[in-house]
């Protein structure tokens, strides 16, 4: 419940964490030199702080500096200053530092002596994390490499233990800014926009999802929203939004053909967010007339008007006061209301007024009173229902006609990654992080027969082994049995009218089917029609019955915007 | 065929600024490195050029008042340049030297005619009096006395080359008037100079022979200079004059074998008449520039011209006689040519080597035809001796025709005297001369009669024009002769040595030879039982169904040129057992070829997979019905079928993979560029 903050001016401030915020308590002993990192001793009696050329240990109760260690004491004729980038305070009293000289050092804080020093890199060691048992440390360097240190006996059976650098990994091209040590994996995040989970194989009992190296480039959430009726796309960037009108063609062709465009895509609006805050969520209404977005502290609503080729955008004034931040925004399909998922588990319903106004209509509270933030919303096409998923993974369905809680979908042991309500049947389709799919009838408050069949038969092994979650679900209004799902690497038209594939069948069978004659195809068809042509797939949605929109985000585009990595000499170059 | 390719200007020769300042060029010599030439003008300057860059790399001049009197050459061993100015003053310098006045200088005791530089022999200095010294010897004592060999004659031309490690220098002198190799009667002659050094100091009179008549359909080329391009081609620079028309200067390439003009290039701006040739480039003056023109000269043969040249890999099948001029009137033609030789030999040249090599008068006036007529009734030994001499000394234009006559004479004698068969002599002639079937049609017939398989093998390898009937006859003889008999004869095994294990075979055959005597017919009947014994296992379990000698002979058949339409009727006559044996061998070769990724057998003149396949198809076409009914052929055909089917499947799979890879590549390419596109996507 105490928060310590190290400041550029060399002070360390202690805050009390109170409901809804933090409260300043006191300053610790202030000395010269920036504070770059802090670490609590597990007993919370002391704090270690890394600074320039030195580390300091504070006594929390007195606020006094009880030890000051010059990290360069042992180095002769140092020209540059040494920055202690990261620090960890072990329960044994050992302070671990990583610094800009590429060293990982172990100190006895009471005596002020260096216990061990390991130079792991010629460039800075930026981040450091200790396992819960304090027998393993992971460090990240500015060359993109991560190293594991383990506390191992000097000899087999010996009681004397030492820190040994055991495993080097190179999963990043740029600075590894953050590392974490879970009980079974090393987790690192780099400036190269990658989050890497590297499992420690010696902790793995069997092969499985956890035993595989994972790399994440994109957040597991939708950054694009689509105004299907107006054929617009809204792209969410960290500091601004872009509204584009899709291009069109008046020709048709055969499979694989690229059609000539009769209208080019058009960049309509760029909406810059004021201030340093990142945009957390955004949405455009189906008709394209409303755009809403939220940052950590602000919520904005705009009315967009289209007159011929010109676009005018007007901020809606006097928004109702809501508890922020909003985690998810969703317009109703008739664009008459906006649902705002709040941090406290509630869903606000705002009524949108022409020509550009808004008023608070209702706030749904989960019956359990869960304080977990709502992070996913789905509304029905008929304006009857809205479904909300909170951080406790509970799915609540609310009735919009009588503003009442309708039901809760039975709890499942995994996080919900996407959900949507079918426009015709009002079935809620839910995708979970373990790749399971459920279909829940909202009117009947129960899983559908198809969903039960899926659970009985089980999904195809290849489907369950995919490692990126379904981030968006859409439906084909003209064919109720079609469900469109997509993740980063594929999109899938799930045809409920077709049999489910068993494990002996080929899941990704589209290219095989295309080679088969018509008659032979029928026997091979199954429910999952998967296309992997577009990668990495940021967004896919159905515009109308025969028009899909796909948004790819090439990794190369991201990489070209990265700063240059630190040049390392490789053999022969 | 010869062809002139693109041309470019190396440098200007104009009076203002060009090389030589309008005085013209003295000579062009190869430079120290490839693509470099050394130009000497008729004045004071030598310039080094990089030909491909058309760029001068360096230039050296002697002082005013001095004059370079012979072409500057490069010593290829030391990369030094050697010049002689004012007849007697020798200068040697290197690339880095700038001022010729400061470089090495030696004044000699006699006037220098020319310095010749040999690529691997060091420079040789030829004095105007005919004396010759190597540069090294000369530099030891520059003032040494140089003997005068020619008194009242003037050296007109000299040339140096290396013959078997030995440098040779030839020069031509002129006593009163003109005698040069391009004569005023518009012809080029060939003079053969024996290089063996006779100890006796005698004069030798060399005969010259007409090499080329420079006339094309009425126009006559007045040659001013020529270079020998290769053994069949010469290039002549001269003016072509048709009667009643203005003469045109041009560069021409002639084929001396077929006496034809191969290509020409008109030079409307005129030329100084000088022509040099280095590294497949001609250099000549054209107007006021030095022009470089590249050329290509491929050895031509009639066989190549009419299509079926045997094996393009073997370069020695290149030269064939022009048998259009021979035919039935063979003898008549040779008589005529002999007459012309006799006529030409009137103009003789006296040539002297440094040691005044001796001349042995050889009045070769007796015509071949006459000689042959005279010898008709001579005893065998006299006959053979005379012919041997004729063949070894004959150096005349229609030599091939003469050889044809000789062989005809030999064969006629064989026919009249069944016991006479000069095996080694015939072999020698066929092996050393470029003959054709049409030149001596009876030769192979007699060899077939005598079962001289070695001669037949050589003929099959060398003759480009064997009729299919004879090829078939050879095949039949080869297949019928027993392995044991073949063991005792010398056959060229180079085509099989690389893929059949000879050692193993020898061991096995030794046990065979124990059989006392043999009967070809009997042997043949027993063949089927023996095949299993004699065969050798290849790596994958296939047997070579014939011994190496027989394989080599069959390979010669496989190598010969043929036309299916003409061969097929003959092939149908092949006895079934022999056809099976041959097919078995072809199948063996096919398997052997397919073992390697490049489907080629190792060795010289080994059959190619195409030849094997063609013969296999041909043989099956000819004998299919018989083969199907023959029990011993059944397994072979089935194996063959399996093997071919496996290959077809394999290649079809490879094709599929190729197509898939192409498709992948196409998809990859397609995907790259667009940032926005509307595509058609079908989900089934």
From TrEMBL, chain A:
Cellular component aspect of the GO annotation: 90S preribosome; small-subunit processome; t-UTP complex
Annotated GO MF terms: RNA binding
SMART domains (alphabetical): WD40
Organism superkingdom: Eukaryota
Pfam families assigned: WD40
Gene Ontology BP terms: maturation of SSU-rRNA from tricistronic rRNA transcript (SSU-rRNA, 5.8S rRNA, LSU-rRNA)
InterPro entries assigned: Quinoprotein_ADH-like_sf, UTP4, WD40/YVTN_repeat-like_dom_sf, WD40_rpt
Name of this protein: UTP4 protein
Organism: Fregetta grallaria
Organism classification: Eukaryota, Metazoa, Chordata, Craniata, Vertebrata
Name of the coding gene: Utp4
Automatic annotation (TrEMBL), chain B:
Gene Ontology terms: biological process: maturation of SSU-rRNA
Superkingdom as given in the UniProt entry: Eukaryota
Protein localization: Nucleus, Nucleolus
Nucleolar protein 11 C-terminal domain: residues covered: 370-683
Any one Gene Ontology cellular component term annotated for this protein: nucleolus
Molecular function terms from GO: RNA binding
Protein keywords: Activator, Nucleus, rRNA processing, Transcription, Transcription regulation
Protein name, per record: NOL11 protein
């Amino acid at each position: 419940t105490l928060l310590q903050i190290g400041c550029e001016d060399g002070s360390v401030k202690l805050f009390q964490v109170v409901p809804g915020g933090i409260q300043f308590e006191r300053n610790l002993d202030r000395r010269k030199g920036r504070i770059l990192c802090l670490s609590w001793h597990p007993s919370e009696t002391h704090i270690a702080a890394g600074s320039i050329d030195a580390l300091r240990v504070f006594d929390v109760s007195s606020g006094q500096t009880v030890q000051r260690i010059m990290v360069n004491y042992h180095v002769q004729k140092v020209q540059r200053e040494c920055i202690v980038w990261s620090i960890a305070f072990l329960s044994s009293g050992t302070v671990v530092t990583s610094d800009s000289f590429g060293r990982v050092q172990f100190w006895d804080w009471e005596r002020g002596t260096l216990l061990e020093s390991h130079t792991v890199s010629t460039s800075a060691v930026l981040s450091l994390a200790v396992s819960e048992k304090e027998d393993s440390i992971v460090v990240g360097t500015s060359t993109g490499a991560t190293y594991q240190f383990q506390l191992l006996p000097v000899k087999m059976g010996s009681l004397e233990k030492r820190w040994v650098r055991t495993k080097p990994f190179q999963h990043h091209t740029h600075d590894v800014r953050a590392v974490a040590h879970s009980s079974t994996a090393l987790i690192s995040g780099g400036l190269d926009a990658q989050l890497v989970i590297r499992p420690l194989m010696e902790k793995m009992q069997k092969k499985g999802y956890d035993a595989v190296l994972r790399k994440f480039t994109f957040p597991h959430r939708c950054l694009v929203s689509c105004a299907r009726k107006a054929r617009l796309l809204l792209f969410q960037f960290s500091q601004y939004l872009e509204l584009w009108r899709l291009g069109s063609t008046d020709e048709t062709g055969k499979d694989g053909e690229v059609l000539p465009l009769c209208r080019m895509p058009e960049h309509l609006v760029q909406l810059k967010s004021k201030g340093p805050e990142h945009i957390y969520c955004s949405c455009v209404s189906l008709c394209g007339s409303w755009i809403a977005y939220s940052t950590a502290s602000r919520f904005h609503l705009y009315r967009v008007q289209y007159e011929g080729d010109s676009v005018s955008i007007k901020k809606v004034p006097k928004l109702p006061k809501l508890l922020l931040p909003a985690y998810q925004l969703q317009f109703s399909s008739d664009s008459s209301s906006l649902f705002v998922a709040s941090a406290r588990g509630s869903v606000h319903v705002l009524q949108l007024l022409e020509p550009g106004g808004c008023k608070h209509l209702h706030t749904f509270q989960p019956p359990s009173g869960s304080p977990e933030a709502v992070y996913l919303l789905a509304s029905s096409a008929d304006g009857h229902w809205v479904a909300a998923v909170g951080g406790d993974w509970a799915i609540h369905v609310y009735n919009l006609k009588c503003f009442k809680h309708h039901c809760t979908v039975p709890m499942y042991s995994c996080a919900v990654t996407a959900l949507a309500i079918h426009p015709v049947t009002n079935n809620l389709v839910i995708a979970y992080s373990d790749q399971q799919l459920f279909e829940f009838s909202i009117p009947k408050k129960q899983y559908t027969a198809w969903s039960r069949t899926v659970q009985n038969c089980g999904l195809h092994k290849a489907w369950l082994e995919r490692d990126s979650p379904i981030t968006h679900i859409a439906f084909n209004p003209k064919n109720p049995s079609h469900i469109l799902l997509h993740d980063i690497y594929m999109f899938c038209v799930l045809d409920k009218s077709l049999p489910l594939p068993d494990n002996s069948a080929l899941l990704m069978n589209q290219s095989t089917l295309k080679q088969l004659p018509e008659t032979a195809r029928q026997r091979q068809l199954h429910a999952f029609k998967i296309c992997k042509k577009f990668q990495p797939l940021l967004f896919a949605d159905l515009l109308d019955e025969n028009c899909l929109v796909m948004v790819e985000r090439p990794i190369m585009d991201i990489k070209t915007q990265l700063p240059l990595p630190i040049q390392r000499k490789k053999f022969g170059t | 065929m010869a062809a002139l390719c693109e041309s470019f200007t190396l440098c200007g020769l104009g009076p203002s600024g060009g090389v030589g300042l309008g005085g013209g060029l003295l000579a062009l010599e190869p430079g120290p490195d490839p693509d470099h030439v050394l130009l000497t003008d008729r004045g004071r300057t030598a310039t080094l050029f990089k030909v491909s860059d058309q760029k001068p790399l360096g230039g050296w001049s002697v002082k005013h008042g001095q004059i370079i009197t012979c072409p500057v050459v490069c010593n290829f061993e030391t990369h030094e340049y050697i010049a002689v100015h004012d007849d007697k003053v020798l200068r040697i310098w290197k690339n880095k030297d700038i001022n010729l006045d400061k470089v090495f200088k030696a004044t000699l005791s006699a006037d220098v005619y020319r310095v010749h530089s040999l690529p691997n022999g060091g420079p040789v200095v030829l004095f105007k009096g005919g004396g010759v010294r190597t540069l090294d010897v000369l530099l030891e004592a520059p003032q040494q006395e140089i003997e005068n060999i020619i008194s009242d004659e003037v050296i007109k031309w000299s040339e140096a080359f290396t013959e078997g490690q030995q440098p040779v220098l030839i020069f031509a002198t002129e006593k009163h008037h003109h005698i040069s190799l391009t004569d005023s009667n518009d012809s080029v002659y060939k003079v053969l100079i024996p290089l063996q050094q006779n100890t006796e100091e005698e004069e030798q009179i060399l005969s010259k022979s007409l090499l080329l008549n420079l006339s094309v359909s009425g126009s006559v080329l007045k040659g001013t200079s020529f270079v020998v391009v290769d053994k069949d081609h010469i290039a002549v620079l001269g003016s072509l004059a048709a009667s009643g028309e203005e003469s045109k200067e041009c560069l021409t390439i002639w084929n001396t074998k077929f006496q034809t003009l191969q290509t020409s290039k008109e030079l409307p701006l005129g030329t100084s008449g000088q022509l040099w040739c280095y590294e497949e480039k001609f250099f000549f003056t054209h107007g006021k520039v030095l022009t470089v023109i590249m050329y290509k000269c491929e050895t031509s043969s009639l066989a190549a011209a009419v299509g079926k040249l045997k094996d393009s890999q073997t370069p020695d099948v290149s030269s064939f006689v022009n048998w259009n001029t021979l035919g039935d009137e063979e003898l008549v033609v040779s008589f005529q040519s002999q007459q012309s030789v006799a006529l030409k030999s009137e103009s003789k040249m006296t040539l002297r080597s440094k040691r005044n090599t001796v001349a042995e008068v050889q009045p070769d006036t007796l015509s071949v035809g006459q000689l042959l007529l005279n010898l008709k009734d001579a005893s065998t030994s006299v006959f053979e001796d005379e012919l041997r001499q004729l063949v070894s000394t004959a150096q005349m234009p229609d030599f091939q025709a003469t050889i044809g006559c000789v062989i005809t004479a030999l064969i006629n004698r064989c026919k009249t005297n069944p016991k006479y068969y000069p095996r080694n002599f015939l072999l020698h002639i066929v092996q050393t001369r470029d003959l054709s079937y049409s030149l001596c049609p009876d030769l192979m017939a007699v060899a077939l009669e005598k079962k001289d398989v070695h001669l037949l093998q050589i003929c099959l390898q060398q003759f480009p024009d064997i009729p299919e009937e004879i090829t078939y006859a050879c095949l039949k003889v080869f297949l019928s002769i027993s392995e044991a008999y073949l063991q005792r004869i010398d056959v060229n095994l180079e085509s099989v040595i690389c893929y059949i294990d000879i050692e193993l075979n020898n061991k096995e055959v030794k046990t065979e030879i124990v059989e006392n005597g043999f009967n070809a017919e009997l042997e043949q009947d027993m063949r089927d039982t023996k095949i299993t014994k004699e065969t050798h296992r290849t790596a994958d379990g296939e047997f070579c169904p014939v011994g190496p000698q027989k394989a080599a002979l069959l390979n010669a058949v496989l190598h010969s040129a043929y036309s299916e339409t003409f061969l097929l009727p003959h092939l149908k006559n092949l006895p079934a057992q022999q056809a099976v044996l041959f097919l078995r061998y072809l199948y063996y070769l096919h398997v052997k070829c397919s073992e390697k990724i490049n489907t080629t057998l190792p060795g010289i003149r080994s059959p190619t997979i195409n030849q094997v396949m063609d013969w296999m198809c041909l043989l099956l076409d000819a004998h299919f019905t018989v083969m199907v009914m023959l029990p011993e052929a059944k397994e072979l055909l089935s194996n063959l079928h399996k093997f071919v089917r496996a290959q077809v499947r394999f290649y079809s799979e490879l094709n599929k993979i190729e197509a898939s890879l192409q498709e992948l590549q196409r998809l990859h390419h397609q995907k790259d560029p667009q940032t926005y596109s509307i595509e058609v996507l079908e989900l089934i």
